[in-house]
Amino acid sequence: MDEPSRALDLEESEMPQTTSKLEIKDRSQPCLADSRTDSGSQLIRSKFTDKGKQPILSHVPSGCRKSNSKKPLSAQEQANKPSCICIERENMSSKVQRRELIKPKAEQPVAGLPLSGKPISMTNSGLPRSSEKSNGDRSVKPLISKYENMHKKDVCSAHNYNGNCKTNLNIASSPLGEVKILLNCDSALGQRNFQIPRFDEVLNFVEDKYIRSYKIVKPQFSVMKLLKDLCESFLKLATDSPDISFPISSSAGVLKNCCDGSITYLNGNDSDSSKYSSEHNLEFHSKSFNHNGKRPSQYLDDITKGSEKVKISLTNEFGNEHLPKFNYIPHNVIYQNANVNISLARIVDEDCCSSCSGDCLSSSIPCACARETGGEFAYTQQGLLREDFLRACLSMKKDPQEHHFVYCQDCPIERSNNESMPEQCKGHLVRKFIKECWRKCGCDMQCGNRVVQRGITCKLQVFLTCEGKGWGLRTLEVLPKGTFVCEYVGEVLTNLELYDRNLKSSGNERHTYPVTLDADWGSEGILRDEEALCLDATFHGNVARFINHRCSDGNLVEIPVEVETPDRHYYHLAFFTTRQVSAMEELTWDYGIDFDDRSHPVKAFRCRCKSSFCRDKKRKRK
Ligand SMILES: C[S@@+](CC[C@H](N)C(=O)[O-])C[C@H]1O[C@@H](n2cnc3c(N)ncnc32)[C@H](O)[C@@H]1O
């Protein structure tokens, strides 16, 4: 039996709450390690599918249930226990389902729609009259108010018909695809002989009237079909508009006849606010608008499920795409055998600054934790990476041959490429590390030498790239050069465990998410496969799993960070900006892939980075 994963951090409050749900063994996925380049930690080339990507499903509102009631209800009973009819669009032609719906409170949003604005009622001229209350709580509620200032195409429409009748019919639509029809019989409510009829009786009565009395329709005429036509016409006109990207599913809209006499059409996506896989437990919204004022097809408010200090949204402005399936974790979690030995006893005096207090950066003499970065802290007082430190890290990526390498006799990476005849080790670059203060240090959590461990603070967004790279990550704000963006978080696996996952792979996976931890390769002797570590964000990871590759001139660089372990086979991999990055720019890093390596058992993806330094020559030629 696999042991459950262990959280790496010591503070209980920071422990990921997800370990009990891991089911790692069952979901083990394959991957093949890439041939390593000289750049240290890198994304391991392998093939993973987005197996977990799931279509968004709609369902009938849970409040609906079958009605057995035969006896007509009195007006009072009706007010307390109203009935409803729900029609699932896909079944509509074959059957009409009659169900009861628990009456929503007047101010309640209608099934996933944010109806929190001012109530709207209609004037007799058919124009919306904001906040005027004409029909008590039976008026069409705030379908319009929230969107009053939207782009013209997104503006709600509302119509009112009453002529000289005692009843009043209002139809309103919102830019979210909701059409609400309100039949208001208020004027008759006080009369002594007033009894609310059953809805199916009303339908029969109307159909009969049209067929027998008016003789203007065929015998198969159905009011419900007419209403369905109305909904579908709405949907058709809405989706024919080139400017509006409607939610994807057209198969499972729901027509609701609610207790307050209103009929609501909920289009496929809006009818279910919890359609995202229960494993993710992420709420789906189609309500948010992108920077062009257009509504994205898919929008998640926070993929981190509240586990980061900042929300990270996900948006898809292009159309149908499965949502990424993975479990968001803000900190690394040990899968099973990785030997990450975190204990205060192992941190000796030279590895911490126990006599410091407050902010180490404000002290005139750099503390022991700065030894790793040549006696100077890696960070500036503003929390950015120091210019010269960043320059040195970039030089290591650009001209690794100019820097220090170690070579192993039996290289696990070469062996992963060719088990029977592994090539000679091509060398592992000994990279620059950041050493942050930690728990045994005397400084406080606001110390300037604790940047990565404080977590993500930038406004980030996952989005569907238009170049065919799948999902990507972008910043929603300008990021100065040297800004910490996020660390690469995933399951900590031994290389051996990663190979095991490879073996169980279907081989059809589209994207890959494992990264090697080999920045200080060789410093503790040659690590065997069962000791050398990697991070796999395929099933459990953070937002960094969405960062795409760009050859050579990515705007992020990955830097190893020592936090809680003085040894180097385990460390954090943190991303910093290599230059100022504009708002809405995609964030990218160079995975270090050798696109020319034909001997590798797994082909690298066709690079679509569009960099003028792109190393994928085939793609370039095309
Ligand atoms: C760590 S994931 C990045 C997120 C991924 N795009 C997604 O949708 O989940 C790495 C995978 O993204 C895709 N990818 C990343 N950079 C790419 C690029 N420059 N060109 C084409 N595909 C890329 C490849 O499929 C790669 O295996």
Automatic annotation (TrEMBL):
It is found in: Chromosome. The keyword Metal-binding does not apply. Residues 458-592 form the SET domain. CDD domains: SET_SETDB-like (cd10538). Residues 97-106, 130-139 have a biased composition (Basic and acidic residues). Residues 1-80, 97-139 are annotated as: Disordered. Residues 356-455 form the Pre-SET domain. Keywords: Chromosome. InterPro entries: Pre-SET_dom, SET_dom, SET_dom_sf, SUVR4/1/2. It holds the Pfam family SET. It comes from the Eukaryota. Its main location: nucleus. SMART domains: PreSET (SM00468), SET (SM00317). One of its GO terms (cellular component) is chromosome. GO terms for molecular function: histone methyltransferase activity; zinc ion binding. Signal peptide: none annotated. This is Histone-lysine N-methyltransferase SUVR4 isoform X5. The lineage of its organism: Eukaryota, Viridiplantae, Streptophyta, Embryophyta, Tracheophyta. The gene is LOC107412336.
